[in-house]
Design brief:
The protein is mainly alpha-helical. It has helices spanning about 1-35, 45-75, 85-105, 115-120, 125-145, 190-195, 200-210; strands at about 85, 110, 120-125, 150-155, 160-165.
Length: about 230
């Protein structure tokens, strides 16, 4: 009975979250469509509205895809299949996936782990979903980093685990928000975050993917810096 009650509460929370997250892009699409029907606007203005409409549709598609993945994972419909595979290759695949976005902002992505031991390391992990988890973190770093900055990635072999560090030069994360950024639909209070496109899904999905494989993800504030993201 307790399990059923928890599932009911989780379902209510999910429906409420979905309603809130979908409201903004749907409203934007509706507005652009109405403006396109108005003959008072010039062809150039309508072209601009079409561009905005396309951006909102792309954003909505990405959000729906992420929501489907989250829902399926929480219901156990997505199974993590771990196999022995080169973890460095998985990381490189993730970097390649966000390379174009980074290049457009003049952001350099540097992988500091050049040791042969790292590059030849094979670990049991789900390549597809682990890559997805890393991509989410990198896309977040690119989104909130300034132009012509640098994102550094380093892999360190510990006694019982592999540590992957991703450090950017972005807007930072306040200490009081550190334990909340991996919650479903949570978005930071920084003004830049409020203005940027996003749904607060990516980092939550990353956490779920890594936890399903026995891993975890944390934010670290470097010594001497009050607000930062790592």
């Amino acid at each position: 009975e307790q399990r059923i009650e928890r599932e009911k509460e989780d379902t209510k929370a999910l429906v409420s979250d979905l309603s809130h997250q979908l409201k903004t892009p749907v409203a934007s699409i509706k507005m652009c469509f109405q403006l396109l029907e108005d003959d008072a606007f010039s062809s150039e203005e309508k072209k601009e509205f079409l561009s905005r409409l396309g951006e909102q549709i792309t954003h909505l598609e990405g959000m729906v895809a992420a929501l489907v993945n989250i829902s399926r994972m929480e219901k156990g419909m997505i199974e993590i299949h771990k196999e022995m595979a080169n973890i460095f290759d998985t990381l490189v695949q993730a970097v390649n996936q966000v390379y174009v976005k980074a290049e457009e902002k003049g952001i350099e992505i540097v992988v500091d782990s050049k040791e042969t031991e790292i590059q030849d390391l094979s670990l049991p992990h789900d390549v597809k979903w682990t890559k997805e988890a890393i991509v989410n973190v990198l896309e977040n770093a690119v989104k909130y980093s300034p132009t012509s900055s640098c994102i550094r990635i380093k892999m360190n072999i510990q006694i019982h685990f592999l540590r992957i560090e991703i450090k950017d030069e972005g807007i930072g994360i306040k200490k009081e928000e550190m334990n909340r950024i991996f919650q479903r639909f949570y978005r930071g209070k920084h003004e830049v975050v409020k203005q940027a496109e996003g749904s607060g899904i990516g980092l939550y999905l990353t956490r779920k993917i890594l936890e399903e494989q026995g891993g975890n993800i944390v934010v670290v504030i470097p010594i001497g810096k009050r607000d930062t993201k790592g």
